[in-house]
Design goal:
Chain lengths: 217, 217
DNA sequence: GTCTATAAAGAGATAGAC
DNA sequence: GTCTATCTCTTTATAGAC
């Protein structure tokens, strides 16, 4: 293990990068996202990664010493982006509007970055071996924080009371569904995704917002 | 390809089975469900399948000539079970009660058979290469049929109007989430799954049923 | 930095004894 | 039906020339 430290240091995060190195790494990661999100970590080969990035296999391994390093780099990047919509919920906003915005941002993320969503989903489904620390750390803390905010709204009677954490789960599940199960959605709706996301947004707004709106009757 | 037909015929569905054959096959499939649902098709090895089933590799391959055959057998079995809760929706029932029952059955399936759910989810995420025909066939037809039933309820003013197909997607997504993302749910809620499903059911009932209930005010 | 060639290990599947 | 031994092909990763 110690014998490969020099090589690993060159090809991973510990070293300062030149501009061209960063460009190549970005190129590789974007190509790898295609491959990994479609086939999972084990289903992808370094040959395929290299072909997708338009370079030879040893060349790719010059930038990322191990297939695993490419995959981990993608996952790390994803965790941050993925939690942004939730971070943006503001305690001092109007509750239903804050939730509407959250649903919209999360659905937009599914629309614009389905590959990232699928990559993340597969990792979680397989037990999240590489995300355990993020789950127990930043993701746990963020959800706890925002759950408390939503619970505050409920406790002051501004929206209906449900378990706030499970409400977040429901928003995650429904919005990510359109990225993760895109093949199934397409097979069933027939349409291409043009109108799908518009219909999805309207449906989710009715379910979540009308479900949580305080009733007159 | 033609040269392996005799072998394949013995080890796959085309042949009538003895009792002991069926028992061994069931044993293998149950063990394989553990392995495939945790690692995906590509991530699992025949060695691991055999070890999980408590037999040698050649012995497993005596019953299923190819790794792929084990996997396909699992998937086939899953599609049927998985669509049962939706099939049981009855047009002549009370709409909100029918939907409540559907949510409950689907959530119960996530609770009792999380491995099957994860196996199916990974297959869909990866583009459903082996489920394309089921998606375009029986699943498509069933969802269309039940969407029409739900739309009928909406058109006659018995529940609020949303896109019925996307309502089904939302129920799928939220209920399966507890099986597919179990690791994440556990990391965030802290609790073990005892109370999780009870809280989930209450939350989903509020969201879906209150969201769809026709309002007095 | 990039390539060709190749080492080394892994994994699906088979041969053939029992 | 089940096993040990093994074949063969794939795949990760490295060596070393340019």
């Amino acid at each position: 293990m110690a014998t490969s430290d020099n090589k690993d240091a060159r090809a991973t995060k510990t070293r300062r990068r030149t501009r061209i190195q960063r460009e190549k790494e970005t190129l590789i990661l974007d190509a790898a996202l295609d491959v990994f999100s479609a086939q999972g970590f084990a289903g992808a080969t370094v040959d395929e990664l290299a072909a997708a990035a338009g370079m030879s296999k040893p060349n790719l391994l010059y930038y990322f010493a191990h297939k695993e390093d490419v995959y981990s780099a993608l996952l790390d990047r994803q965790v941050d982006d993925w939690t942004v919509p939730l971070q943006e919920i503001r305690e001092d906003g109007e509750p239903l509007e804050e939730l509407r915005g959250y649903i919209r941002r999360k659905l937009e993320l599914s629309r614009m970055r389905p590959r990232e969503s699928r990559l993340y989903a597969m990792e979680i489904i397989q037990g999240a071996p590489r995300l355990k620390s993020a789950l127990d750390g930043q993701i746990y803390a963020l959800v706890r924080e925002k759950s408390a905010v939503i619970k505050g709204w409920m406790d002051s009677g501004r929206i209906a009371s449900v378990d706030a954490t499970h409400l977040i789960f429901a928003i995650w599940a429904t919005t990510q569904h359109y990225a993760d199960f895109a093949v199934q959605v397409r097979a069933i709706t027939g349409t291409d995704t043009e109108s799908t996301f518009a219909t999805a947004l309207k449906t989710l707004e009715v379910l979540f917002l009308d479900g949580l709106r305080i009733r007159d009757g």
